[in-house]
């Protein structure tokens, strides 16, 4: 077992960046519209029903302003569209366009290939264990007292 002494959130962030960088490179090589890492994250959390900018900000853990900028970049790129919200005249629903759906399918295929490449590097059993741990519900974050100084 390898131990670097680094905390788990830092390691998870590094792992996410590994996938993001490889995904962005593959999309660029295939001639897709260039997107930024925040746009990739936002695009990834957008489900079939669509979401408001506020919901997307919450899902990605960024400010509403950051999510708004990412959405508008993806709208300008033709990957997302803004539609009337069915229950609120003040809000807009963000959805993938037909082109956005195509790019999403391509990105999903690339991510599956990256997972296979990772399995070649660290072993299928390790990848399966990682997936299992991350798919298991963790419950609400606990309340933890800071250590005494």
UniProtKB/TrEMBL annotation:
What is the protein's name according to its record? Answer: DNA-binding MarR family transcriptional regulator
- Pfam families cross-referenced by the UniProt entry: MarR_2
Q: Specify the HTH marR-type domain's residue ranges.
A: 1-139
Origin species: Actinopolyspora biskrensis
Q: Which InterPro entries match?
A: HTH-type_Bedaq_tolerance, HTH_MarR-typ, WH-like_DNA-bd_sf, WH_DNA-bd_sf
Superkingdom of the source species:
Bacteria
Query: SUPFAM superfamilies this protein is in?
Result: Winged helix' DNA-binding domain
Q: Does the keyword Endoplasmic reticulum apply?
A: no
The GO terms describing molecular function are: DNA binding; DNA-binding transcription factor activity
Q: What is the lineage of its organism?
A: Bacteria, Bacillati, Actinomycetota, Actinomycetes, Actinopolysporales
Signal sequence annotation: none
Q: What UniProt keywords apply to this chain's record, in alphabetical order?
A: DNA-binding
């Amino acid at each position: 077992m390898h131990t670097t002494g680094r905390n788990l959130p830092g390691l998870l962030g590094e792992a996410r960046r590994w996938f993001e960088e490889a995904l962005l490179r593959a999309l660029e090589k295939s001639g897709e519209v260039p997107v930024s890492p925040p746009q990739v994250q936002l695009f990834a959390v957008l489900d079939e029903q669509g979401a408001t900018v506020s919901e997307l900000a919450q899902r990605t853990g960024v400010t509403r302003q950051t999510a708004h900028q990412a959405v508008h970049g993806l709208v300008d790129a033709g990957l997302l569209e803004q539609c009337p919200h069915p229950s609120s005249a003040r809000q807009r629903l963000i959805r993938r366009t037909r082109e956005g759906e195509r790019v999403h399918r391509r990105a999903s295929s690339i991510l599956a290939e990256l997972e296979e490449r990772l399995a070649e590097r660290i072993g299928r059993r390790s990848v399966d264990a990682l997936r299992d741990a991350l798919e298991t519900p963790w419950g609400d974050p606990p309340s933890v007292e800071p250590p005494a100084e």
